[in-house]
Amino acid sequence: MSAQLTLAVSEDYPRLAPLMEALDIEIGVAHDAVAREAAIMPLLEGSPLGAVYIIGPTRAPIGFLVMTLTWSLDYGGIMASVREIYVRPGVRGRGIAPEALTALVAPLRAGGVRALGIEIDPSNSTGQSVYARALFQPRPSVSMMVRKL
Predict the structure, then answer these.
(1) What is the pTM of this model?
(2) What range(s) does the N-acetyltransferase domain occupy (predicted)?
(3) CB of 80 within 8 A of CB of 117?
(4) Is 48 inside a domain boundary?
(5) What total of structural domains would you count in the chain?
(6) 144 in any annotated domain
């Protein structure tokens, strides 16, 4: 199984939508189809604030990855954040997620990105193990707080 990454475009949405819905169901997030499409379409249409990648074959994706960009004073420049990563349950446990995250590093580095982050629930030991395999390290002194606008 390959964690090949392909930059997704708007024409890929019909193949991504079922995967996005499956992730929402799995993590218990209530997005309807219209809200889900509205949230992802700017990235699929080329927004400079992030990108969506198909994991695996583009005709039959095994997952997807959503990455956004911000500026970080701590890291001295552009920081990318993995906002979502999903691999179909039937192919999990084969190293696909860590491989996909690792494959993302070279193009980000070439684009001047200084760091790559990912948010994770502290109780998610499986996710922590997956991300550690892709060389992510915890930042114990940092906790994110959010104000919805």
Answers:
(1) 0.91
(2) 3-149
(3) yes
(4) yes
(5) 1
(6) no
